[in-house]
Every structure is written in C-alpha cells, then in structure tokens.
Design goal:
Strand order of the largest sheet: 3-2-4-1-10-9-11-15
Structural class: alpha/beta
Number of domains: 3
Number of helices: 19
Number of strands: 27
Shape: globular
CATH topology of the largest domain: Glutamine Phosphoribosylpyrophosphate, subunit 1, domain 1
Oligomer: single chain
Bound molecules: 2-deoxy-2-amino glucitol-6-phosphate
Radius of gyration: 26 Å
Helix content: 25-40%
CATH superfamily of the largest domain: Aminohydrolase, N-terminal nucleophile (Ntn) domain
C-alpha cells in the first residue's frame, strides 16, 4: 500500500528552482531577483523565507514571482534568506503547498528541488511522533525531520535527515536558532554556490546569481555545504571535508531582456542565424571538407571504432535526435537508434561495447536524460552529450560534450536550441564519416557549403513572414491541426505539432505522411487544417499523393514548399515558401516556419507564450 502511495507521489512531483543568500545586504530583493532567473524551472507558486535574527518570516503565494513581489514585506531588513519557485505535474498549486516549508514551531525553513520518494513512510513516522503537517508536499517531511534531529547543530540535523531520505534533492535550510548560516545539500538535483565579498549565495544554476558574483563552486551529489557570510565549507553526507575548486563563470551578466520583441520566443526564433553561425564557428573547414571538434580529439580512436549509436533525449531534443538518425545512418552506414530517455533507462539496455550514446539536452539538466546517460555508461557505452548550457550537470557526467552555442533560451518552447542541435548532429555526421574515411573531400565539402548557407537562408525567410502570420491566424481559429512529412521532414512534423500544442493549446499531431491511410485519415475533416512539409526531395511526389488524400477529405492544406516550386499551388490551399536549399537542410528552414506558425497561432489565441501552463523550461525530476 505504502509503495503504491509512493508510486502515486512520484507522479505528484515538484520541479523547482531554489536560491539563498547571506551577507549584509537586504536579502529579499536579491532572492526575488534570483528567482526571476529560475522561473524556467517552474512558475506555479513561489516563496521566500528570511531570517532577521529573531525569527523566520515566510512569504509565499500561488502564482509567479511577479505575484510574490506584490505581497513581500518592503520593510523586512533581513540579510539571510532562501527562496523557491515551484512547478507541479499534478495537484493544485497553492500557497500552502508552495515552499518554503517549516517545522512545527516555524523555527526551521526548507526549500527543495527534487522528490522525496519515501516521504509517505517518513510522514507517518513523524506524525506518530506528534509532528503536525500542513501541506501535501513531500518536502515538508524535510523540515520536520530536521526538527526531529535538531540538537543545537543545524548542519548535523540536516545531515541526519538526509541520511533517512530516498530520492533526489537540492535543498537549502535556515533556522532561527542559528541565524548566521545556511545549510544546503544536493543529490541528483543541481546546486551551485556563489562566492562574494562578505556575502555568499546559492542557487539551482549560475544565471540566478550571476548578477552578484562570477565565482562559482559546483556542489556534487551527497555533498552538504555550510554557508556563512565569510565562509563556505563543503563535506560529504558522512562528514568528510571536501576541497572544492572555484570556477569563474564565463561571459557577462546574462541579458534576459526581450530586446524589443513581444516575447522571448519570438526573439529566440530570430536569433537562429546567429546561434547557428556561432555553433559552426571554428569548427568547419570547407576547403578540406572536414569538421574539427577539438573537444573530441582525445577520444578520436574510440569514436572511430564505434559500430552503433543510440540517441537519447526528450521532447524537442528527441525530435532533433530523430532527424540525426536519418543523417547519421546515411553518412555512417551504421545502425542508429533513437529513444526517449524515460523509456531507454527502464528497458533491458543492451551492452554498449563499441557503441556511442549521444544524449541531447539543451538544458543539460533533464533528469530522465541524465539517468538514461548513467544507465548507458554502466552498460559500457561511450557517452557524448549535446547541450547548450556550459557547466550543466550533463557536461560534468558525459565522457565528452559538444556545445551548441545558441545563447540562453528563456522561452519554454525550444526554438534556437533545436536548430542548433540538428546542425551539430549534421556536423558530427560529417566529422565521423571523414574520420572513418567513408566520404571523400568533395562530398563533405558540398555538405559543408550547404550547411554554411543555412543561417543566411533563415535570415531571408525571417524577412518575409506575412504569409506565415496569415496562415497561423487561420489555425488559431481551429481546435486541432495536423502536420505531415516524410523522411527528414517527418521529425519536423512531430516538432511542429509539439510547438503548436505547448504554446497555443491547440490539439496537434504530426504523422509520417505515408501512415495517414493506416488510421489518422479518419481524423481529417474540413475543420482540420493540415500543414504539409513538401520541400524538393526524393519523397516530393509521394507527398503530393498524400496531400491529395487529405484534400479528398476536404482538409484545408497549407504547404511548406521551395521558393521555386511552381507545381505545388495546384494541390493546396495556401503555400508558405522557404528559400531553395539542399534537400538535406530543408528541415531546418521548415522548422523555423513551424515555430512561427505556432507562435502566431498562440498569439492569435492570446495564450501566454513564454510560460505555457503546466510546463517548465527544464524538467529536473523524473
Ligand atoms: C520543447 O519546446 C519543450 N519545452 C521540451 O520538450 C524540451 O525539449 C524537453 O523537456 C527536453 O529538454 P532538454 O533539451 O533541456 O533536455
């Protein structure tokens, strides 16, 4: 019974961002500012706890950080505090379930990102000892466990509490009995500490505290950290001191402004040419027909001997992986499987000798992908991570990493990171094909030449989007729509549907066009617009056949076709043109069109584009 309940609660998980600060400045504005940078991790409720020496003051609310700002105490002069922004997969977000959570006396406050899997058993045990619980969360047991074990030493109490816990956590704890420290710890959820002068910070990631410091310490699993104004001491859960290296965070303070765009998503769609150019920079050697990944040099022999590849990812990254399969199998002539991270890790994974696991995660923090990568490693796979975030957990766990250089992506809907992931998979294909001596200079030179043309072509596409906007408004009026494509453009159809549903809430599905007659055709009516991906290529005429099938069922068909295609207008109701491009790269241009269709359909419907309901940018729980 208990196991079953724990199973249910595993579904009722919280995925969140945590922050903390201690120094001589007012804590509240720092906590609020830091939390704003973590809203990508969840935004259904938020809270802070500050310590003014005498007692803990908790402020929390259902809603976003901007809602929290409306109720915070402007006269609070506390210089120590912790904060939280929350995301729940199930259950009603409420101020009661919002963090921080406190013990029975309100003397200890805890914020938590992760899942306490054995919380039900712990809750029953603590309740039988007289502890009174207020919320439905797993996190509250941590506050009561710390209370139970508190004996004048908060660090020791946290340590003992965590030794009782199964699951994942990044936590920060304060107590009014020890007003000059924050205790934090992590296991399977990210946590960093930022070092200042006479002040220190903690957070789920660097951007949250980058404004205050660039000196960062990464906390590892099962480490606990004692933070005061002037010191940061890290030890293992077992109490062994750990020497940490201080890393200097790259770059300037992250500019999370919309730069004149109405939404981050639109800004990020327009940033794609830049993101792609930067991802290619210093890696392409057109004349030689080669691609140089300096970061892979030490593994070159091993990579060369790879006989199969598994691509592992979630959501949009999975769609990039599907496209990667086409390209890698074509160039390398070895089997490439693509699996959802959440499926891969629970399968009876085959031995990975001479196999490469390419784990794709823009955030580098997706819990399922990290767990799948661990599983792959333990089965002997060589692991290669493709990510956009320097210093993310995946970069520290993979054998090697390939960075996309898209810059920070704020909109929950992945856009510029998606096309950069596709690009880097193409680049990796050419790199490995040359390494294995499977292509000649001329063939790979031609691919590189086309590759280099893509950013410019996307620019010209972005210069004229009026047809896209017009068609998107039409879709905005409907309840559902379908995306069809074949071959390289089938994953793009899936991605178009995902974008549409996540930001506009319109029911959308993507299909391989050849599959329509095996079932999905039953869904087609005059009220279901079909977006058909028909760029020039080997399946062009097959696509025309599929378009006829849906037209015969009265669907309104919007084609995405090449600029020079004079034929397509005879078959469809509307045509969105993409610049002529090598067949290999048409999916990247089509992807940009579908991002814009989803964006303008969502805008037409008045949806909340950058922070769609029930979602979060980074999914840090399984
Ligand atoms: C994309 O628009 C989604 N928000 C989502 O599917 C995302 O791609 C997925 O959660 C994987 O994230 P990751 O790339 O950070 O691992």
């Amino acid at each position: 019974m208990l196991r079953a309940l724990e199973g249910i609660i595993r579904e009722t998980v919280f995925m969140c961002g945590i922050v903390g600060c201690i120094g001589d400045r007012r804590a509240t504005p720092i906590l609020v500012e830091s939390l704003k940078h973590l809203e990508y991790r969840g935004y259904d409720s938020a809270g802070i706890a500050t310590l003014n020496g005498a007692e803990i003051d908790v402020t929390k609310i259902e809603g976003k950080i901007c809602d929290l700002e409306t109720i915070i105490n402007e006269t609070d002069n506390a210089c120590v505090g912790i904060g939280h922004t929350r995301w729940a997969t199930h259950g009603v977000p409420s101020s009661t379930n919002a963090h921080p959570h406190v013990d029975c006396t309100g003397s200890i406050a805890v914020v938590h990102n992760g899942i306490i899997e054995n919380f039900q058993a712990l809750k029953e045990e603590l309740t039988s000892k007289g502890h009174i619980f207020c919320s439905e969360t797993d996190t509250e047991v941590l506050a009561h466990l710390c209370e139970e074990y508190y004996n004048g030493d908060l660090e020791q109490a946290v340590r003992e509490a965590l030794l009782r816990v199964e699951g994942s956590y990044a936590i920060a704890v304060i107590s009014d009995n020890e007003p000059d420290i924050i205790i934090a710890a992590r296991k399977d959820s990210p946590l960093i500490v930022g070092l200042g002068a006479g002040e220190n910070f903690l957070a789920s990631d660097i951007p949250a505290i980058r404004k205050y410091t660039n000196k960062i310490i990464y906390i590892n699993d099962e480490e606990i950290v004692r933070i005061t104004r002037d010191s940061v001491v890290v030890s293992t859960l077992q109490g062994v001191k750990v020497e940490k290296t201080v890393t200097i965070a790259d770059g300037s303070i992250i500019d999370a402004e919309r730069g004149g765009y109405e939404h981050f998503m639109l800004k990020e769609i327009h940033e794609q040419p830049k993101a792609l150019r930067e991802t290619m920079e210093d890696r392409l050697y057109e004349l030689e027909g080669s691609i140089d990944f300096k970061e892979l040099r030490s593994l070159e022999d091993e990579i060369k001997g790879i006989e199969s590849i598994s691509i592992i990812a979630c959501g949009t990254s999975y769609h990039a992986g599907l496209l990667g399969k086409y390209i890698l199998e074509d160039l390398l002539r070895i089997p490439v499987r693509v699996e959802y991270s959440s499926e891969f890790r629970y399968n009876n994974v085959l031995s990975g000798q001479k196999s490469l696991a390419i784990c794709i995660s823009q955030s580098g923090e997706t819990a399922d992908t990290l767990a799948a990568m661990n599983e792959a490693k333990s089965q002997g796979y060589l692991t290669l991570a493709i990510t956009n975030v320097v210093g993310s957990t995946i970069t520290r766990k993979a054998d090697e990493i390939l960075l996309t250089k898209s810059g920070i992506e704020i909109g929950v809907a992945a856009t510029k990171t998606f096309t950069a992931q596709i690009l880097i998979l193409y680049m990796f294909g050419v790199y490995l094909a040359r390494l294995k001596k499977l292509t000649d200079v001329e063939t790979s030179r031609n691919i590189i030449t086309s590759m280099k043309s893509v950013p410019g072509l996307i620019e010209s596409l972005l210069d004229n989007i009026s047809t896209i906007e017009k068609n998107a408004s039409r879709i905005g009026e409907t309840d559902c729509c379908y995306f069809i494509g074949r071959g390289l453009n089938y994953p793009i159809a899936l991605e178009g549907a995902l974008k549409m549903k996540e930001i506009s809430y319109i029911k959308a599905e993507g299909f391989p066009a050849g599959e329509l007659k095996h079932g999905p055709l039953a869904l087609i009516t005059a009220d279901t617009p079909v977006i058909a991906l028909v760029p020039e290529g080997k399946t062009y005429y097959k696509m025309l056949g599929n378009i006829k099938e849906v037209k015969a069922r009265n669907a309104y068909v919007i084609a995405i076709a090449n600029a020079s295609d004079d034929e397509i207008v005879k078959y469809v109701d509307s045509v969105i043109r993409i610049p002529d491009v090598d067949e290999l790269f048409s999916p990247m241009l089509a992807a940009v069109v579908l991002q814009l269709i989803a964006y303008y359909a969502a805008k037409y419907k008045g949806a909340e584009i950058d922070q769609p309901r029930n979602l979060a940018k980074s999914v840090t729980v399984e």
